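Q: What would this chain look like folded?
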Amino acid sequence: MAASMVRICCYASRYGPRILRRRTRICLAPTSDFHCSSPAHNGLLPSLHKRGILKDAFPENATQDQLPGLLQSGPQTVYCGFDPTADSLHVGNLLAIIGLLHFRNAGHNVVAVLGGATAQIGDPSGKTTERQRLSADVVEANTRSIRESIQRIITNHEVHFHDGSRTLGTVTVLNNLSWYKSWGVVDFLSEAGRHFRMGTMLSRHSVQSRLKSADGMSLTEFTYQVFQAYDFYHLNQIYGCKIQLGGTDQLGNLMSGHEYIHKVSGGEVYGLTIPLVTSSVGDKLGKTAGNAVWLNRDKTSPFELYQFFLRQPDASVEGYLKLFTFLPLAEVERLMEQQRKDPSKRLPHKRLAAEVTKLVHGKEGLESAKRCTSALYHSSVQALEEMSDEELQELFSEAPFHEMLLEPGTTVIDACRTVGAIPDGPRGYRVVSDGAVWLNHKRADNPEQVLIPKLHILSNGLTLLRVGKRNFYIIKWLSLGDGPIEQGSQ
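A: My prediction, written as structure tokens:
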């Protein structure tokens, strides 16, 4: 990405908790209340509306003339915030990033604000209980990791989805801790707090729902809307930002920002909301609900992300192609026509999965997902041979990984017993001879069979051992020199 187009104001790192296990279906609100006037019929806002990316706007009447006119008058600055309450964003956040990328693709400048400060307060929107407090060190580490993820997706979009026919807007990634760390509590309340009215703050849906809950609402959470409003004001003053993008659960916070800016500076700003990604039972799909599909590889592999979208029901795939890809709407319609003619090929599903995986993980991630798919579902030995150790461990995430010394005369039953795949004694011998053991997708029913390179041991020095239908073991063979076996060393 051209250096002139990107300004990065925080640092990157990666953390690696567990890989996603759960499979989830996602749903989105099928209708939108967003409206645009006829003069802007071919503009950006109607296009995003047709794709289902925009749902509501504030002020409501601004979408009919003011906002389309503003966007057509020249490059504008649009921002969206992401609180680093985990070390990775998820699919629900991806839709917000895609929204920013659509604005950038239209020549507008976009700002991603990482809430290094607000993550320590906790957004009550959509929450039934108060968020567990995070230490400053954890928030800082999460911020670095999410910054890296956003930068990766932005780069993938520019490399793989931008055709060069338009000039892209700039990208700025900020950490809001940078403008709060110099504030004292008394100074901030004296400066910003006097512009907020308790009645208005108490009327917000996010506040009302929490006040009625058994646990109530803390003062810390209650002040969140003040901080998000001030974020908008700060960006408006420093970057000329007039548009904020957020989930539908952020509408109250967007309204607070609009009201605060209007009171302090008299400026006109606007809020746009995108639909929330929810599970099949209507729960918000994210880390709080425990059903997140993550955007970092160390939490959800490219293969798992690919399969997540590939397995979406037929009724959802057209909507997801419009939401999660940059395919022209005419191309989406062509794919759906192919689906109607031959549903068994599932061409829209495959295209959806490929487009999203390439956006999130790049071309290499998509190729990795396809290799894993071929190895697991099509019993492709070639795909196994081309897989890295990392891909194998991602694909067979529950499978034990063993390094073994390849000694002359090592047999099938030796390998099985060494990794603990079969019982000791005659019972284990029968497991092999009865045909329950497979090496690299080929049945190995002779316990005394000596392992043969290129058959039982792949050219990458690995063996995939399966006992029964679901018990996998990965063996990495070492040569007598204690190094990994290389192709041709046999």
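The two ends are 44 Å apart (CA to CA).
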